């Protein structure tokens, strides 16, 4: 685990912004903290409840019109990362229109 943590620290500048879905789970698994995170499960909280998060697959379909996570092998981390980036970009572009929806 220490090797992985060290490798991540080497490639990530301290001020990098991490973008992902339920990042708390990834960071917890890595036993790491990071001050700059944009979590799509938080900024697109459709339930209004902190503990109940909307799936990335649902957010991608609803806000991007894209179907993801349909491959037989399960999640594709590259596909998930791309969807998170697109969702954050869309949120930044449409904040005014989406203020009541999200």
TrEMBL record:
UniProt key word Acyltransferase: no
InterPro entries reported for this sequence: REXO1/3/4-like, RNaseH-like_sf, RNaseH_sf
Domain of life: Eukaryota
SUPFAM superfamilies, per the entry: Ribonuclease H-like
GO terms assigned for molecular function: exonuclease activity; nucleic acid binding
Coiled-coil blocks: none
A Gene Ontology term for the protein's cellular component: nucleus
Keywords recorded for this protein, A-Z: Exonuclease, Hydrolase, Nuclease
Protein name listed in UniProt: Rna exonuclease nef-sp
Source organism of this protein record: Triatoma infestans (Assassin bug)
Upper taxonomic lineage: Eukaryota, Metazoa, Ecdysozoa, Arthropoda, Hexapoda
């Amino acid at each position: 685990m220490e090797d992985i943590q060290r490798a991540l620290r080497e490639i990530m500048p301290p001020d990098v912004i991490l973008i992902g879905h339920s990042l708390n789970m990834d960071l917890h698994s890595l036993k790491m903290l990071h001050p700059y995170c944009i979590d799509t499960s938080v900024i697109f909280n459709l339930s209004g409840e902190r503990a109940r998060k909307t799936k990335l697959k649902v957010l991608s379909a609803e806000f991007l019109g894209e179907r993801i996570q349909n491959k037989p092998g399960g999640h594709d981390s590259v596909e998930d990362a791309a969807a998170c980036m697109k969702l954050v970009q869309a949120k930044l572009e449409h904040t005014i229109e989406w203020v009541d929806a999200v």
